[in-house]
Amino acid sequence: MYTYEHDEAVRKLLKKRTPALPSELIIKCVRKTHSKADLFMETRGKFGSPLYFLDIPALLERAERFSNAFTAVFSDFTPYFAMKSCNHPQVISTLAGNNFGIDVSSGAELQTALNCDAKKIVFSGPAKTMAELELAVNHAERTIILCDSFTELKKLLSIGKRINIGVRLTTENNPLWRKFGIGHHELEEFINMTENTCVRFCGLQFHSSWNLNPENHVELIRKLGETIKNLPEQHKKQIEFIDLGGGYWVGEGEWMLADTAEEMKLNKQLLNHPCDPLDHRYLPSTDIETYACALAAAAEKHIFPHIKCRIFAEPGRFVAHSAIHMLLTVEDIKQPDIAITDGATNMLGWERYEMDYFPVVNISQMSETEHPMMVLGSLCTPHDVWGFAYHGNGISVGDLLVVPDQGAYTYSLRQNFIKNIPESVVFDGKTVSRVNCTSFL
Ligand SMILES: Cc1ncc(COP(=O)(O)O)c(C=O)c1O
């Protein structure tokens, strides 16, 4: 039944104003893409398209920025890259060779990390199977298992081999998030169960997603501090690390189509006005240095008075963001407002650009001006969108388009749907070469 409260809620939502994405941010991204135009052109000339273009210097720049932000504020800090955000073996081996540990969440990811010569691995994730736990235990010298439940601990005890473990603590009462970890009130019982057994309990982990600012993360540290404060002294001494998980948003904020902003969705439904394809919105996010400072201040206040320990984090999105650019060629122009590319959104496995905004940059006809155009992939489904606009002087069959900064949660969700998964090439800062990445999954 529609009530007065509904009226109020609608009024409130319609008053909401999701900010416009500042044009400086878009232009910065377009210019950065233009600066590599010759490289992209040569690459397509040599390897064809579509392609995943792995940009190793860009990956390392973000990895270093993350590490620097956290090592500046925590005296003993280790980053573990969350493989689920980008499981390209070249990305994993590059990070593993540059002082990153790897955070894996399945036996398949663990095997990839081992193949990529990762020296430090944390294995998180719910309902690990016996086979997955055995693989971890067989590589105990470089793996810490972050247990997700008492059942998992019992499975590990039944294997009977020595391994370092931590435990994940549940962060939220949200029904779907309750599937992760054990409750704070169960921690003491969990640690007790590890006493005089083959496993060595040595740390705690929690994870929260999609943090545009550190508020939620800070609150979780405060809550964890309370739990630690109330533990028996001998348990406190056992905690050698706290793993703060991932969820650090990229500093540029969350970019979205106008249609995705909540108030615009409602507007569209009520008035049936199509959104302007050049109207992009965003939710600002905190820069990583400020974010790290806020976490360090919270740890100083709530954790370190009770225990001295190492700090781990599991960044995915932040580090992987600029590691991959999508290279596409325009195959067809169907109407003045429809361009179809050779590559399709099976390259990313989900309908990302029906919600998110990212510039589609025409490298063959470069311009900083954006024009409306439906830029679509070539799958036999309408849910195959790269964008509703492009940056360029025009768009023609044969043009090279680049969708930059698509490293996070795209490649790792790729699928053989209608079309094959395209090849990848890697740019190491000097040359571009083809990579064989069939070794995963
Ligand atoms: C346990 C865990 N750690 C780290 C991450 C990485 O999160 P993000 O890519 O947002 O940094 C995830 C993502 O879901 C996760 O589940």
3D structure, described in words:
The chain folds into 2 domains: 16-53 and 321-435, Lyase, Ornithine Decarboxylase, Chain A, domain 1 (Beta Barrel); 57-251 and 286-320, TIM Barrel (Alpha-Beta Barrel). Helix content is 33%, strand content 22%. It has 14 helices and 19 strands. It has helices at 4-15, 23-34, 37-47, 56-71, 89-96, 107-115, 130-137, 150-159, 187-194, 215-229, 233-238, 262-271, 288-302, 317-320, and strands spanning 51-55, 77-82, 101-104, 121-123, 143-147, 163-168, 199-205, 241-243, 254-257, 280-283, 310-313, 324-335, 338-341, 361-362, 370-376, 385-391, 400-403, 423-427, 432-435. Helix 1 packs across helix 12 and helix 10 packs parallel to helix 13 (288-302). It is globular. The model has no long low-confidence stretch (mean pLDDT 95). Residues 82, 84-85, 103, 124, 207, 209, 245-248, 314-318 line the site of pyridoxal-5'-phosphate.
Descriptive terms for the model:
9-stranded mixed beta sheet; TIM Barrel; alpha/beta; binds pyridoxal-5'-phosphate; 22% strand; 14 helices; 19 strands; 441 residues; Lyase, Ornithine Decarboxylase, Chain A, domain 1; 2 domains
